[in-house]
Amino acid sequence: MPPRQRERQERINRNARRLLKLVNTLLDFSRIQAGRVDAAYRLTDLPRLTADLASVFRAAIEEAGLRFKVEIDNLGEPVCVDHDMWEKIVLNLLSNAFKFTFQGEIEVRLERRGDRACLTVRDTGTGIPASAIRRHLLAPARRQQSQDSQGHAGGFPGA
Question: How is 2-32 classified by DSSP, letter by letter?
């Protein structure tokens, strides 16, 4: 297979895997809302898992000219989490940060607060106006029409 054709085939496969993952994530959220999720909790090196997940976005974020800061504290002990659900949470937060940040930085921080692990994803993106936070965060998810995103039209406020 010629190199250009191979590159296209790899891109098609990569995008197909992303779409499959998106569909599976939507199905998972549907199961969560219906109360039909069985979490598989296990002791985890959460700092390592979080750093590995964050690294998935590094190249794309830096290629877009953004700074990417990852600050992972040592939590002192393994944490009991469902790996699949943690992955969905981290990747979803980073995906949204990337889609709506056009300049500045995206920061991922994992720290211990008392007896809890606290994940923060902060960005300098467009965000939700302070006056609309209560309305958007408490409303059911709906498609918002917007061209202000990197590669996608619109977002899902409240999701």
Answer: -HHHHHHHHHHHHHHHHHHHHHHHHHHHHHH
Written as six digits, the tokens of 3 are: 């190199």
Q: Is this structure's pTM higher than 0.85?
A: no
Complete DSSP assignment for 54-85: HHHHHHHHHHTT-EEEEEE---SS-EEEEHHH
Measured CA to CA, the distance from residue 150 to residue 68 in angstroms comes to 16
Tens digit of pLDDT for each residue in 49-87?
A: 999 999 988 988 999 999 999 999 999 899 999 998 899
Residue pair 61/23 in contact (Cβ under 8 Å)? The answer is no
- Rounded distance, CA 91 to CA 98, Å? 10
